[in-house]
UniProtKB/TrEMBL annotation:
Signal peptide: none annotated. The lineage of its organism: Eukaryota, Viridiplantae, Streptophyta, Embryophyta, Tracheophyta. Residues 1-23 are annotated as: Disordered. Residues 14-112 form the DC-UbP/UBTD2 N-terminal domain. It comes from the Eukaryota. This is DC-UbP/UBTD2 N-terminal domain-containing protein. InterPro entries: DC-UbP/UBTD2_N (IPR032752), UBTD1/2 (IPR039869).
Amino acid sequence: MGCAGSIPKVDENSKKLKKPKPWKHVQEITPAQLTQMRDEFWDTAPHYGGQKEIWDALRAAAEADLPLAQTIVDSAGIIVSNSDMTLCYDERGAKYELPKYVLSEPTNLIRDG
């Protein structure tokens, strides 16, 4: 009921977030290329459906550490179908698919130096 000390309702359909599994990009990429890919995805994602507010929450969660990301998705009412956030739904049933490159770095990222 929102009383002090009450536990917020957690959707039983939503999974606890986990760190994405290591993955490899088809070719080695630099941090700048990865950032560009991420920016392009987030700029175009809302055009494929779903609510802008949910996309914004997903971006904030993708860029946060796991405990904060969990709080963000729970607060936004996002149903996490895959624990690595690659597949999520909003409360209306709209589907949100996130590519691995917005959630973590590839194992073949070119490091400076």
